Every structure is written in C-alpha cells, then in structure tokens.
Amino acid sequence: MHDTHQAIDLPSLRKQKILLLLERDGKVTASHLVDHFAVSQDTIRRDLGELAAAGLLQRVHGGALPRPKDTGKDFFTRVGETNEAKRSLAQRAAERVEDGQIVLFDSGSTTLQIAQSLPHSIRLTVVTTSPMIAIALADHRDVKVILAGGPLNPATLSTGGHEAIRLIQSIKADLLFTGVCALHPQVGMSTLHFDEVAVKQALLDSASHVVAVTMADKLGAVEPFVVAPCNRIHTLITEWQVPGVDVYEQLGLEVLRVEVE
C-alpha cells in the first residue's frame, strides 16, 4: 500500500485538498493535516504559509481558517458595478456570435452583459446556468433559451449539480462565453466556489470555441479552486492597456484588446 498517498503528495494537489477540507469543515488543524496526508509538520506549515501568502486562507495558531468573507462580492453587487469599460468588452464579445449558432453562457455579471448586448434580431439556441441570462434573452423572439436545472448557488445566482452537468454534457455548442473569476498564466482559470468547478469544466468540454471576457483586475489573479489551464480558452477579450497580457498570447490564446474609456 505504498502508493496510498502518492497522488496527493504532490504539493499543488495537496494544497487543493487542504482548501477543500477547509471549505467543508470551516477550519483545519496542522496536526490533523499531518496525519491525513502522512507528511511532516514542516511540510504542512509550509503549505499553510504559502496558501496564506496567496490570500487563500487565514493562518492561525495550530491551523487555518477561511479567509474573511468580504473578499468576494455577491452577484447583485457585481452587476451594480457594471461600467462603460465592461460594456465595451461585452459588446465586442457579442459581435462574435453568428446567426444559427448554439451558444453556451456561463454565469457571471460579464456574461450577463454579453447576453444583454446581443441584437434582438439574432437567431440562436442558448444554453445557460444563469437564470438572469435566461430572463435577459426571454424577449428575443428567435432565441431559444435552455436553462440548465439544478440547485441554485445564492452567491453566484447560477445552477449546478448533476442535473446541470448532464444537460451541458449532452450539448455540442459552437461557442462558450465562460465566466472568469481569476486567470493566471501558470495556474490557469480558477474560481472562489468549489461547486462551480465541475460545471465550468463541462461547459469547456462542450464548446468548439471558448471566449473569456475580463477586466484587467482578473488577470494574474488566483482563486482557491482550479478549473482548467489557460490553453482551454481560445479567445481572450480584455482592456487595451493591460501590462503582461502578451504572456497569454505566448500560451496560444487569441487576445483581443479593446480600447475603453
């Protein structure tokens, strides 16, 4: 049984598991983690220190607690903060949509803005995990909207669970507008909510072309739960003057820079 812990002994995977335990239990102790992973106290102290330095947890004596809850904004707060810059990015993204396509919409304030930017004359089939996006497109006469069912996450106002994933996996879409919580060249796409990971991965797997639209503050950022590497995105639409954006082009992404006010 020598290989029992082999998979999670890799530092990055072990840290992911620590974050999962923290989300489940509300706290973790160093002594429990030492026993759970069969590693040394120094290893766990180093893991917790690195996670704390990245802002992913709060280090306390003997273990760790979740980071303060006010670091994430709820959906309505983010929608209320929509500005002209985000609208400009959303309008550029909406121009990628063609008549007759099947389009997947991930949840999020930016993807909602993209849906609201679509012309009323367009003919589409839209599949989404966002009730808000479904409502926004309800008055488009030639848009057939399919809302993936399942439990509603009140923080993101998106559906999830096995029902939503099964529906998404049955779709072969032309285009996906994926929500971006954080996008880092080395880490990839990551999210604040663990229950979003499987849904986002299913969306990525079901689309021929993936478009990510994000403001500059999401680039280079990391959240606790990794969704996929950057190369799962085909097109990145972001602000014109973003330092370091060339690294995403080097990873093979098409990067569209939009001049915004």
TrEMBL record:
The lineage of its organism: Bacteria, Pseudomonadati, Pseudomonadota, Gammaproteobacteria, Pseudomonadales. It comes from the Bacteria. PANTHER family: GLYCEROL-3-PHOSPHATE REGULON REPRESSOR, HTH-TYPE TRANSCRIPTIONAL REGULATOR SRLR-RELATED. Keywords: DNA-binding, Repressor, Transcription, Transcription regulation. PROSITE patterns: HTH_DEOR_1, HTH_DEOR_2. SUPFAM superfamilies: NagB/RpiA/CoA transferase-like, Winged helix' DNA-binding domain. Pfam families: DeoRC, HTH_DeoR. SMART domains: DeoRC, HTH_DEOR. Residues 11-66 form the HTH deoR-type domain. This is DeoR/GlpR transcriptional regulator. One of its GO terms (molecular function) is DNA-binding transcription factor activity.
